[in-house]
Amino acid sequence: MEPEMNPEVATINCQISQRAVVSVVIPARNAVSSITALLRSLIPDVGLIREILLVDDGSEDATTEIAKDTAQRHGLPLLILPVSFGKAGAARNFGMARAQGRFLFFIDVDDELVPGALSILATKLIENPAAGLAIGACIRQTANRRDKIKIPHGYTDDCDQNVIRYLANELWPIAMGSALLVTSRAIGIRFPETISLDEDTCYWAALLAKVRVVTSAEPVLIYKLDEARMSRRFTASPRNTLLGISRAFRTLAACGVPETALKQRIAWVALRIARQLIMNRQYSEAGSIIRLVRRHPLFRPTWKVFRYNCRIKVGGLFQRLGMRKPLAVPQNLDYLKNQRRTLIVTVDSASVPVSGGDLRHYQNALSAGKLGLVRLVSIRPGGSEMAEHRPGIEFFSVGRPGERSKSLSSWRCSVEARIPRSALPRLLEIIRDFRPDTIIVEGIPLAALLKHLRPLANILILDMHNIESDLALQRQARMSGKVRLSAIFKNDVARIRQLEKRALKTVDRIWVCSDQDRERLVELHQPTGSIYVVPNSIPRLDTLRNEGLSRVRECKNGPVMLFVGHLGYWPNVAAAERLARVILPIVRETFPSAKVVFAGRHPNPVVKSLAALPGIELYANPKSLSAFYERAHIAVVPLSEGGGTRIKILEAMASGLPIVATAVAVEGLGLIENEEVLLASSDEGLARHVIDLCRNPDNMLRQILSAEKTVRLRFGPEAVDFAVRQGASLAGD
Prior knowledge:
Number of domains: 4
Strand content: 15-25%
CATH class of the largest domain: Alpha Beta
Helix content: 40-55%
Structural class: alpha/beta
Number of helices: 28
Radius of gyration: 29 Å
């Protein structure tokens, strides 16, 4: 139990919390996918922050625009510092030189803070005025592994011993974002600017040699470890990397760090580089590095060095015999651009995208098309027509109208698409002719194809629009009577879950739509393949017309509520019933001329029956949704279960439609309630939001403008291009 804080310290803490005393330095480059989450994690400590210095190191995406928008929304004191260094150390030094706060805090752009982290660290420094550095615990998140909590311990008041033990790995490494330092104590200490590996260790070691440390066992940081990026840092020009690290660490001798400690650290880094080279089958380079490790007396007799040396010799022998080729590939995307070939296999054609799935496929094809040639192949008939011609993107179909053939899966579960056996040879012929580098398969419905495609793909990707077993469980829970007993008897949920497990073991990578889906997938299956979040975007973003002003004027005469999507998909069917049978009648009590428009593919018989109700219009399989968006006043999405692409939300926002929805409908989009979206769980609450919007044109217009700005910044084509480039890259390039 911690000792009770004395009144004097409590008073000081209170004064500190009321003043902006922390300078936050964030180096960033092409960080559209993470900058919003990081800035939002700073909100709980906004009263403590004097300035947030975002050092934008040559970003080619919308990083600065998104950062400015987020800071403006939440009152964060953000300052953008545009630079062109190419090294995180140089960017941090640039920000540090301009910092005005009493305390200095560094954090990487792809990590997040635990709420109240800065307050925890600042309190520790105030309670211990002799200390110059406060270190908190961090939660390390690695793809496909359980989270680990790293608690700092073992530090003493002896600075010399602290730095020696730190360099010898007897103390946990200080993660960037888990430490707060007193600015005046760090004068003259800078990050190395010539290296991209271990530059933070060099900085912390120099600081530990000079200041006392205080620690906290409370987690302050969510550290997201990207193993692929770490591997690239170790294996790109390993000799030059090691030489640069050696030079940087030898400068610590001026801080009084013993040479023996520096040599030990350099040998340990060399051992890590050798390990990564062995994993990438670069045995020649690994051999030269391991020889340097063996010169150090502490490492020469170890079992690890002996084992690495054996692996290098055996691997090198196999390589000389023409086996076990290196896994490393050229890192320059421009070199690969004209050679990359991506094949996307879908259920329905995406040549004329209308609903969520085909809109996602089409946008992914556009993004992949910026890296090379793309073919989209659907297993169902059709797909030869195109809404517009896109050079480098071709559409194929391997299904034939009226063709009768056995299914590829003899005993399908409820989510599997029927794949005719006769379609498989046609698909394989297209693949052999195209010779793709990457094959992307549309989720679990096409899982039966994976074992046939595995030998033909350098990289095989499963694009999971939904976590199907989770959705099946939701659906089963809402069933009643004999229907539910039948589903339990068929054991459909368990069969879907087993199908997912087999599919995840077959592929190299998994794409999901949101961080929530990623967390759910890891919790259910803990897949071995890498998981990438590839968000949805709006393929027609630049062509959508925002008629927000006219909508505000017209809505008072009775709203036209719009619901678009695949109308045969069971969560959409249930939502359509709620909207037609409950929500619309409530709205019509106030606005008798109110209407609901349903537009989408393959309407279920239940949806078709809704068209007979007063005020309901149904448009099946429309070639374009533009006219519906222009005519509607409000998008209402009353989903009670399900997941999916949620493109219906994004496209409506971009078209200037205010969104009234359930929390499930917008899950994973990170929208701000009552600002970008109106949420309610009950039909009555959703109807009340619709009525209030029509009665309050100023609120309606405010939401329209806010939502459109968000969708263009966070879900525009640039964000998806970056995610697809990362998720489809060769060896994580």
